[in-house]
Amino acid sequence: MTKRPRALIFDMNGTMINDMDYHTKAWQRIFNEELGGNFSWDEVKVQMYGKNDEVLERVFGAQRFTEEEKKALSFAKEQRYQQEYLPQLALLPGLANLLEEAHQQQVPMAIASAAIPFNIDFVLDNLNIRHYFKAIVSADDVLLSKPHPETFLKAARLLQVDPIDCLVFEDVPKGAEAALNAGMPAAVLTTTHQREEFAHLDHILHFSADFTDNFFADLLK
Question: How far is 26 from 81, CA to CA, in rounded Å?
Answer without folding.
Answer: 6
